[in-house]
Write a structure and sequence with these properties.
alpha+beta, two-stranded antiparallel ribbon, 4 strands
């Protein structure tokens, strides 16, 4: 019963959203972007967040960007274990480093 009501509610909200969207199609509404793009990295060896920031941003002080993108990381000085997945936000200082993290053989 609850699933049926949920499906009906979602269908109605989708229908109302598309009709509202088509009503304002002629106006100039800016596109909505959601958050900063990021890259998911699996660590080949244990390292600190500051070391990771130094690799990807060229500056260890950018570690707060990585901490804010990963809810499970609480501070800049914490050591991240091998094989852990970490989100690295793509900012203006971001540089892809696949060869430094062992991606390229």
């Amino acid at each position: 019963m609850k699933k049926g009501l949920l499906k009906i509610a979602m269908s109605l909200s989708l229908l109302m959203g598309t009709s509202t969207l088509s009503a304002v199609e002629g106006s100039s509404i800016p596109a909505v972007t959601h958050g900063t793009p990021w890259v998911s990295v699996r660590l080949p060896y244990s390292m600190t967040v500051k070391e990771l920031a130094n690799i990807y941003y060229g500056n260890a002080s950018e570690a707060n960007v990585i901490v804010s993108a990963n809810k499970s990381i609480r501070s800049k000085g914490v050591t991240l274990r091998k094989n852990r997945r970490v989100r690295i936000p793509v900012t203006t200082n971001f540089t892809a480093q696949p060869e430094r993290l062992g991606w390229v053989k």
